[in-house]
Amino acid sequence: MPFQPEPSYSHGQAARTAIVLCNLGTPDEPTAPALRRYLSEFLGDHRVVEIPKAVWWLILHGIILRVRPKKSAAKYASIWTPEGSPLKVWTEKQATLLRGYLGERGHQVSVRYAMRYGNPSIPAVLDELKKEGMTRVLILSAYPQYSGTTTASVFDAAVQWGMKRRHLPEFRFVNRYHDDPGYIEALAKRVRAHWMHHGQAEQLVMSFHGVPERTLTLGDPYHCECHKTARLLAERLGLPKDRYKLTFQSRFGKAKWLEPYTEPTLIAMGKQGVKTVDVICPGFTSDCLETLEEIRMEAREAFLHAGGEQFHYIDCLNDSPDWIRALADLTERHLQGWPTKQADDPMALKDSRERALALGAKD
Ligand SMILES: C=CC1=C(C)c2cc3[nH]c(cc4nc(cc5[nH]c(cc1n2)c(C)c5CCC(=O)O)C(CCC(=O)O)=C4C)c(C)c3C=C
Ligand SMILES: [Fe+2]
Ligand SMILES: [Fe+2]
């Protein structure tokens, strides 16, 4: 396909920087047709399911997309809010708050959110920003731990958009922040606040989204990064090794995924006589189906059924001010060298005398 005509933004125009907070995505509605669209895009991504394409296409379209949409739609319906899917509501709010924090610190930047699957899509948001004259873009994934299945797929979407454009902005990607002190401290504060109100349970379970075990042996750093996050959080909380557990949730399909699995671990704990647990999902920065339905509803039920007495779910970071501050700090570090404050960028100063002075002329 030939390249389409594009607005030109290079002549005499100051550089404009945008930050795009990219999350996984979510269906538009909790209905089977919306789920079919969403799951077909998501599960059709070769980064997510690494089975040879022809074989997988048959399984996906022949079986999964016939059965799963209806079941998943019912689960989504159980967590849907008047404003929409929790994942989208929180991600949008985070982008709005991040815009506010960066603005207060004097940065002149656009802040948007985009979804890897579903809407608003990464290409749609990049097109809008390009129309607005954006010349630099920082892609900030909502995933603290790097995985080929998620982080790299966001990279693919941005690169695929770029492959069809003539005049590209400068790109930067934040690959990970699993050990960022601001992120860890925001998690620790969440846990401490919970303990203040409800007391401390016998065990803290830190549940991360799983990935197929194969990806670990093939070199995906995700498993190690989850372990580091868990260790740093435990250290920050002063928790000894026998008071917390790291588990992996959301297994999909028949293959072996990273272990230990969250729900079977909680059931075993209940059977072994553990009466109280606190559960946090540190890898999810926004509450979503996987935390609200799978953990707060299903895993709770399983633990109580197995003999547990109290199951406390600790909310994701969502719009916690400590978290947004950590995001702003993280963003600022990645913006270094890109002049985003008027004083940093002589060409952004309107007055020619001001500009000359900033460029080093003597008054
Ligand atoms: C099929 C394989 C999957 C891999 C690999 C995978 C990795 C992965 N996912 C997240 C974060 C989220 N996943 C969410 C939902 C979800 N995940 C899968 C499958 C895989 N995920 C499916 C099929 C679904 C859809 C829901 C369902 O039908 O059960 C969500 C929630 C989305 C929402 O709308 O609320 C998140 C978030 C990570 C971080 C990750 C790898 C590290
Ligand atoms: Fe997932
Ligand atoms: Fe799930």
TrEMBL record:
Annotated localization: Cytoplasm
Pfam families (UniProt xref): Ferrochelatase
Principal subcellular localization: cytoplasm
Function: Catalyzes the ferrous insertion into protoporphyrin IX.
Protein name per UniProt: Ferrochelatase
InterPro entries reported for this sequence: Ferrochelatase, Ferrochelatase_AS, Ferrochelatase_C, Ferrochelatase_N
Catalytic activity: heme b + 2 H(+) = protoporphyrin IX + Fe(2+); Fe-coproporphyrin III + 2 H(+) = coproporphyrin III + Fe(2+)
HAMAP family to which the protein is assigned, alphabetical: Ferrochelatase
Keywords: Cytoplasm, Heme biosynthesis, Iron, Lyase, Metal-binding, Porphyrin biosynthesis
EC identifiers of the protein: 4.98.1.1
Binding site residues for Fe(2+): 209, 290
GO MF, one example: ferrochelatase activity
Recorded metabolic or biological pathway in which this protein acts: Porphyrin-containing compound metabolism; protoheme biosynthesis; protoheme from protoporphyrin-IX: step 1/1
Family affiliation: Belongs to the ferrochelatase family.
Domain of life, per lineage: Bacteria
